[in-house]
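RECORD TYPE: inverse folding
INPUT: structure tokens
STRUCTURE:
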């Protein structure tokens, strides 16, 4: 567990939108339940605006907040001044938590900055094309392969259809 995998967990609209106005542009209760399950017991790296949008530490997880603001404090979370520092902190936390994964939880700048180091993407494809101000980076099929897909039925509290897709970096060890 010296080098836990970096796993980006993200919900993305058909046009690449992941957020608007520092929040999610949809309500998908089914996806939020999966998010909780997928991130539980793991350290999570996120940007300050993502931390602000969540508003609190998430139970069962350790948050590492990346910010350029030297005076920033995030009660209940760890603060890093760079992506490299955030990964160092998250690796230590992963060892302490007994986790072989570190979650990359967004937003746009964090996903972009860590994409080259990300091993796997747990993607919720949202069947919408909507305006937004935060986007997930374009993925090259040369770099990523789909290894799993599930399209559960739309729940009562879901505002759109969706599919859960697991992408693995090409050339990486196959997930068990």
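DESIGNED SEQUENCE:
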């Amino acid at each position: 567990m010296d080098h836990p995998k970096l796993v980006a967990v993200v919900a993305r609209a058909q046009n690449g939108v992941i957020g608007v106005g520092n929040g999610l542009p949809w309500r998908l209760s089914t996806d939020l339940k999966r998010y909780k399950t997928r991130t539980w017991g793991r350290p999570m790296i996120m940007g300050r605006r993502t931390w602000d949008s969540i508003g609190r530490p998430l139970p069962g997880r350790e948050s590492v907040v990346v910010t350029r603001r030297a005076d920033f404090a995030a009660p209940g979370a760890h603060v890093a001044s760079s992506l490299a520092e955030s990964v160092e902190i998250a690796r230590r936390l992963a060892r302490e938590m007994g986790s072989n994964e570190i979650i990359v939880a967004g937003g746009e700048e964090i996903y972009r900055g860590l994409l080259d180091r990300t091993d796997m993407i747990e993607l919720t494809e949202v069947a919408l094309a909507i305006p937004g101000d935060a986007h997930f980076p374009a993925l090259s099929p040369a770099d990523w392969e789909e290894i799993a897909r599930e399209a559960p039925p739309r729940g009562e509290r879901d505002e759109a259809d969706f599919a859960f897709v697991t992408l693995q970096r090409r050339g990486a060890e196959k997930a068990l």
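NOTES: The helical segments are 29-39, 48-54, 83-97, 108-114.
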